[in-house]
Amino acid sequence: MSDSLPTNDAAARSRALDLLRTNQRFLLCGHVRPDGDCLGAQAALARVLEALGKSVWIVNADPPEPRYDILARDVRFGVYQGGELPRHDVAVLLDFCELSRTGEMAPALAAHASKKLVVDHHVPPGAPWWDEAYVDVRASATGLLVRRIARELGLPLDPVAALGVFTSIVTDTGWFKYSNTDAETLAVAAEMTGLGVDPSALYAALHQRQPLGHPPAFGRALARLEYHAGGRLAVVDLPLAGLDLGALDTDEVLDVLRSVEKVEVVLLLRELATGGVKLSARSKTDFDVHALARRFGGGGHRKAAGATLAGATLAQARERLVEAALEALSAPAKNGG
User: Fold this and answer.
1) Same domain, 197 and 286
2) pLDDT, tens digit, for every residue of 231-244?
């Protein structure tokens, strides 16, 4: 499947919409550790489908972080506890396109006879395994795609759906400061505020509820910083023991490092309690961190991607990732375009 096929092909888009129109029971699934784009898109699509008289369940592998209580007070985000999934005709996979990203839910989803519909803005990893897809890799957020779906179904958004779409957008555009912010993104954001979304209240809910230990943890994380390639590559590695990082928001660390003038690429490595190392990679130039992440079994976007290096120690992961990033930085022509 080409990057643009599911969106640019009117027939494919029509088939995806037909799945939503003609079926009655829907299961909305997200990736592990669902973020604001995933949760916001789920909340918005749930309200759209319910407005059509459909039965809808949201089930994720992990519960929402407390910061997303502003969404959870009006939408029930179920957590998979093992066993059978709710009876459904269509499973809608929002903000991801690899079944493995549903964690422990993956075997149950794969075994279920339901149709699988992907709604996503990430680069597809390979040949399609799903039944239908509504995908646009140029879209700033999955919630933006849900707004398009609602429009094509001829349905207005209620205030809860509007909050979901707005949450999706601000999460994945960094409150409109990332390069994926375009005219459609800003127009939809303005539309959502017209439907009652209060941006300042949402910002406070998402970003101004940090515990007292957050600033010291943030400082300890930044103390792990090392530069490479004359400052073009910034690397932070976070061991599981000894730093007391708590619920550190690593996106904030990534943003601070990207603010350094010379830095082009940021790699943040975090040792996992379950084993292995989680990579979060960001770029502010033409460097393609998606291509880097794919080398290690991950994915994402050109300027924001991630991967999990299973079985690797922190030192091993750091060595492999730094080597790969330096190799790519030394061949800029291969990262252009």
Assistant:
1) no
2) 999 999 999 887 77
